[in-house]
Design a protein that fits this description.
mainly beta, elongated, binds zinc ion, six-stranded mixed beta sheet, single chain, about 130 residues, 2 domains, 2 helices, about 30% strand, 6 strands
Length: about 130
């Protein structure tokens, strides 16, 4: 069986797989499920239906991929529509880019490489850009 790799935008992901709302939290619009307690228990109950997606922290980005993954996880999504077995999906939700003030020789005590007076990144040295 060969695995197909498909990149989707968040919008395409929502349209194709229809992530459900998290009924376990008070915020009626929240989609993400936490990695502990009742929320992750609900997520785990949906794994075999191929309806679980993992929101994770990558190298200089955050992304969502199909399946239940543990490493670097931030949270989970549960979808109405199951994904196909032999396809690996990836949705990039944000990326980190070096700010104009980034200087690798400047690492200060808190491990940041930016100019503390920079308006863009406030000294972090990186800027997070969220995908639409
Ligand atoms: Zn900056």
């Amino acid at each position: 069986m060969t695995t197909k790799f498909v990149e989707l935008t968040w919008k395409e992901f929502e349209e194709q797989f229809k992530p459900i709302k998290n009924h376990l939290v008070s915020d009626p619009d929240q989609l993400m499920f936490e990695t502990y307690g009742d929320e992750v228990e609900f997520v785990i109950s949906k794994i075999t239906e191929r309806k679980v997606w993992t929101y994770a922290d990558g190298d200089y980005c955050t992304y969502v991929s199909n399946g239940y993954h543990y490493i670097n996880r931030i949270g989970y999504y549960v979808c109405e529509v199951p994904y196909e077995e032999d396809v690996e999906y990836q949705i990039i939700t944000s990326t980190e880019e070096q700010c104009e003030c980034y200087d690798e020789d400047r690492e200060d005590n808190d491990g940041e490489y930016g100019d503390p007076n920079c308006q863009e990144c406030e000294g972090y040295g990186m800027i997070t850009r969220y995908a639409d």
